[in-house]
Amino acid sequence: MLEVRDLCYSVDTPDATQDILNHISLTIPDNKLVVFTGPNGGGKTTLAKAIMGLVEPGEGTILFDGQDITGLSITERARLGISYGFQQPPRFKGIKVKDLLGLASTKKLLSKKDACSYLTQVGLCANDYLDREVDASLSGGEVKRIEIATILARQPKLMILDEPEAGIDLWSFARLTETFEELHRRGDCTMIIISHQERIISLADRVIVIDRGAILQQGTAEEMLPAIVSGTLGSCPMISEEVRA
Question: pLDDT, tens digit, for every residue of 105-149?
Fold first, then answer.
């Protein structure tokens, strides 16, 4: 179980101190799929990064399976089973996709069959990618899916994904949502997904709307979607028009 208690984070600007997270508290039980949504700049990604250890909060506590992880490093949190997928993943010139999957895998030796399975789950034809380098020759959407494949290979207890649909074509997006749905059905891990996509939001056990650094509202997908789609929550539209079209 993940618990966030009274989390605050602020940054200093030339004019003043700007609050990014304002006393956020939430609890996410094991094996649930939770979607963070809300207007751009509302604090969703900062909250996710604080959970992963990429951002150090000014106040508050983060607990994972009852352990206080607030002061732990990214590596220590990863060892506890927390993984993070960036909105814009890094590239690794000189490292092939199969090697990156092998580094991420919890298995000592990742078989070609397993590597192919992880790539297939994110909508990539495995034989076309295993021997390619994770460099500038790949599109942003391809790198994004490869990163998600490495997270699947890691088999985390908590998977955090920041807008996994960004830069991905509609067919691959459909394949990704099927994978998320299957992972959730099997109860393989807890998932936090930052998304503006109605199809992903509809999969959630709980939808948390974050705006101006605070939790604006939360509830089930059935409770929240009508207001989110109609734009009656938050300070600006939250559903991506591209996927709704």
Answer: 888 778 889 999 999 988 888 888 999 999 999 988 899 999 999
Low-confidence ranges of the chain (pLDDT < 70): 232-245
Residues 162 and 144 in one domain: no
Say if residue 113 is in the same domain as residue 51: no
| Predicted local distance difference test score (pLDDT) of residue 61 | 97
Q: What is the dihedral of CA 23, 215, 86, 228, to 10 degrees?
A: -170
Domain residues for 221?
2-81+156-244
Which residue reads 């508050």 in tokens? 60
Query: How many domains are contained in the chain?
Result: 2
Position 90 scores a pLDDT of: 86
3 state SS of 18: strand
Q: Where are the beta strands (DSSP E) in the chain?
A: 2-12, 17-28, 33-37, 59-64, 67-68, 82-85, 92-96, 133-134, 158-162, 190-194, 206-211, 214-219
pTM of the model: 0.89
In sequence order, the 6+-apart residues with CB closer than 8 A to the CB of 218 are 26, 206, 207, 208, 209, 224
CATH code, domain carrying 198: 3.40.50.300
Domain boundary among 127, 155, 183: 155
Residues 134 and 69 in one domain: no
Quick one: 72 and 108 in the same domain?
A: no
- Per DSSP, helices labelled H in 161-208 are 170-186, 198-201
